[in-house]
UniProtKB/TrEMBL annotation:
Its cofactor is Zn(2+). Gene3D superfamilies: Cytidine Deaminase, domain 2. This is Cytidine deaminase. Zn(2+) binds at C55, C93, C96. It holds the Pfam family dCMP_cyt_deam_1. Coiled coil: none annotated. This enzyme scavenges exogenous and endogenous cytidine and 2'-deoxycytidine for UMP synthesis. CDD domains: cytidine_deaminase.
């Protein structure tokens, strides 16, 4: 794995340290890398009204876009807790796939998604996770 990808995964892990997840105790970290090298991170933010939880990936996209970031989204790393489940790589939920797709479409990329597990990093493309996506082009 490249040093750039290792750094992206590390950034996601560090971000998960700020997770506010008292209800699930499931800290997720996400890190976005743009083609200019910029990294934007996010972590999950839960709510006493459980269904209002914000996922790490969605928070990262919101942070980037709120700061005016509109570049080419190159890669995304997602990390979860290492002591839960079977340690399989964590994959973005359905809503996060759609949210990521919007940012990716703006920059015209199909980003690599690095799904981090305990013993493995599974790399997929966003288009693998969300084939035939609905996006901004449909509204032209
Ligand atoms: O891709 C995912 C999947 C889940 N979560 C969060 C939502 C909730 O806070 C916790 C348990 O579902 O993990 C994310 O942040 N990203």
């Amino acid at each position: 794995m490249s040093d750039l990808d290792k750094a992206l995964i590390e950034a996601a892990r560090i971000a998960s340290g700020s997770s506010y997840s008292p209800y699930s105790d499931y800290a997720v970290g996400a890190a976005l890398r743009f083609s200019d090298g910029t990294i934007v991170t996010g972590t999950n933010i839960e709510n006493a009204s459980y269904g209002l939880a914000l996922c790490a990936e969605t928070v990262a996209v919101a942070k980037a876009m709120a700061d005016g970031k509109r570049g080419e989204l190159e890669a995304v790393a997602v990390t979860g807790p290492q002591d839960r489940g079977d340690g399989a790589p964590i994959t973005p939920c359905g809503r996060c796939r759609q949210v990521l797709n919007e940012l990716a479409a703006l920059g015209g990329t199909d980003p690599r998604i690095l799904c981090v597990g305990n013993d493995e990093v599974r790399e997929v493309q966003l288009s693998d996770l969300l084939p035939h996506a609905f996006g901004p082009a449909h509204l032209d």
